[in-house]
Design goal:
single chain; about 450 residues; FAD/NAD(P)-binding domain; 6-stranded mixed sheet; about 25% strand; binds flavin-adenine dinucleotide; binds 2-acetamido-2-deoxy-beta-D-glucopyranose; FAD dependent oxidoreductase; proline dehydrogenase activity; FAD/NAD-bd_sf
Length: about 450
């Protein structure tokens, strides 16, 4: 593996593909870090900012340090201190997070709780039963399980925070922003060197750099063979307009995340209540040209995002509508009346890895190529710090906490053997096109 270990290997030019959490925070870190003061920086995204279908743009994202894995707890605590102070603080709201579960999922809840308590926390309340959960979350029904609420967790307006960061980056006047779709990496197969990308302009044009950082989120698997390493999984979100009075009554309550079915509700904002599912998600197997093959006819089949950009009429599938509706009916029956439909929905794409660890690493084969992705549905909270961590890895100084976790995996593991991070609930093995065709059938 070609991992430079000193500042002598600071690249003269960096091209970042993708302007989500991983890409934009890397651009910011490059601007701030004096080692890279002479490096030219280009950031290319297929959409104008803020990317309407990117994983990083939404009304809200949970900011929590309570992981079942201590390294992430430590990094998230650092990030959270910045959210509380200097990083887009007007977009951060510390109203708590109530993690509940039933059965097997209580293992994850209990492990997180042990970590949080090891950090000498004083603001954690154990919910030993449904009555406790109802009391802290203000819901009318939450029977049967246990959990805890950490009043020091919060949530952020994800789009607001990304726009805040974009302005910070623009203020350095160092980054050249390009809006164009990357069609492929510029790979020299004789030397195994990546020297930039080809854009899908007509005629095709290129952007070259001494280091290309692939941070295209769930789309990364369309530009590099990530079979057995990363895959796109589609997650459901549903939104319902609510009145100012309803919003006021829920605004300061904790986020409620039920790890047994993956469903969660973040406190409403700007007149919208949001129910989403942190689940196993939809796979969307797609056959594409092999992104690394010299043979233009060679194909591979990988799960890739399919979004409202591909189909402007896209909604979540019927099973997801039903799941979100049942959850709302269960916790807030007074809001979930038949005359109050969800008016908007979205499928948001996680970049899942086998164990939920990020992939932040040089490519083992191609010189000049670095990959920063694998958010696995929990990357947003790290927005204030992940770019700095990515640069440490670029410099060959992977933080000790993450050695062996963020590295390119030694083997590719078939996706049906992935263990996951233990935090997902809800249905498994769903295929997007199958669930969507149920929608079409039911409309006929
Ligand atoms: C529904 C949902 C809920 C979540 N909840 C939480 C949460 O509560 N807390 C938390 O911490 N995290 C959460 N996450 C995870 C977090 O949002 C992601 O880990 C993070 O946003 C991933 O960022 P990214 O930069 O990898 O991907 P993205 O934001 O998707 O960015 C990738 C970018 O690459 C661009 N791109 C793709 N292909 C190309 C191409 N060929 N050419 C040019 N550009 C391209 C895209 O347009 C996009 O802008 C959630 C994610 C989802 C989807
Ligand atoms: C989790 O903790 C609760 C409360 O302490 C306990 O009752 C339960 O048995 C634990 N469950 C598991 C699966 O460890
Ligand atoms: C809950 O999470 C926070 C996150 O900041 C952690 O630092 C805190 O110690 C935990 N408990 C407390 C004090 O609320
Ligand atoms: C609470 O939930 C249980 C289980 O879903 C259900 O049987 C009961 O009717 C609900 N109670 C209310 C008040 O909605
Ligand atoms: C959480 O999910 C479990 C399993 O579906 C369910 O029994 C429980 O009632 C749910 N709790 C809440 C608060 O939704
Ligand atoms: C790819 O397929 C086309 C059509 O089948 C064929 O004409 C062409 O020779 C093939 N190219 C290679 C490199 O095999």
């Amino acid at each position: 593996m070609d991992s430079p270990s000193s500042s002598s290997s600071v690249p003269s030019s960096v091209l970042i593909v993708g302007s989500g959490v991983f890409g934009l925070s890397t651009a910011w870190a490059l601007c701030k870090n004096p080692l890279f003061k002479d490096t030219t920086i280009t950031l290319v995204d297929r959409q104008t900012f803020p990317t309407p279908d990117g994983a990083s743009i939404d009304t809200s994202r949970i900011i929590r340090p309570d992981y079942a894995s201590p390294p992430y707890t430590r990094l998230a605590s650092r990030a959270q201190n910045l959210w509380r102070t200097t990083f887009a603080p007007e977009h951060y709201h510390e109203t708590g997070l109530c993690l509940v579960g039933a059965g097997k999922q209580l293992n994850y809840v209990n492990a997180s709780l042990a970590n949080v308590q090891a950090l000498a926390t004083d603001n954690v309340e154990v919910c030993k039963d449904g009555e406790d959960i109802k009391r802290v979350t203000g819901t009318s029904n939450a029977s049967g399980e246990a959990g805890y609420v950490n009043w020091s967790s919060g949530w952020a307006d994800a789009e607001g925070a990304m726009i805040w960061l974009r302005k910070e980056v623009e203020a350095y006047s160092r980054v050249k922003f390009v809006t164009s779709t990357v069609s492929k990496l510029l790979i020299d197969h004789a030397t195994s060197v990546v020297s930039g990308v080809t854009l899908s302009t007509n005629p095709p044009t290129t952007l070259t750099a001494s280091l290309t950082i692939l941070a295209a989120g769930a789309w990364s698997a369309s530009l590099l063979d990530l079979r057995g390493i990363c895959k796109a999984t589609g997650q459901a979100i549903a939104y319902m307009p609510i009145s100012p009075a309803e919003e006021a009554s829920l605004r300061n309550r904790p986020t409620l995340l039920n790890l047994s079915n993956g469903l969660f509700m973040i406190p409403p904002s700007r007149g919208l209540l949001k129910i989403a599912r942190h689940g196993h998600g939809y796979a969307n197997p797609t056959t594409i040209r092999h992104p690394e093959s010299e043979d233009p006819n060679e194909t591979i089949t990988v799960s890739l995002p399919y979004t409202a950009i591909d189909d402007p009429s896209q909604q979540i599938a019927p099973e997801a509508w039903a799941d979100c509706r049942q959850f709302l009916t269960h916790i807030h029956p007074s809001l979930s009346t038949p005359t109050r439909p969800f008016t908007k929905s979205k499928i948001c794409w996680y970049t899942d890895t086998r164990d939920g660890d990020f992939l932040i690493s040089y490519h083992p084969k191609y010189k000049g190529l670095f990959v920063a992705t694998g958010g696995s549905g929990h990357g947003f909270k790290f927005l204030p710090v992940i770019g700095d961590s990515i640069l440490e890895c670029v410099l060959g100084e992977t933080p000790d906490d993450f050695k062996g976790k963020w590295d390119w995996p030694m083997t590719r593991v078939p996706e049906d053997e992935w263990e996951g991070d233990g935090s997902r609930g809800g249905p498994m093995g769903l295929i997007l096109s199958e669930e969507m065709s149920k929608a079409r059938a039911s409309k006929l």
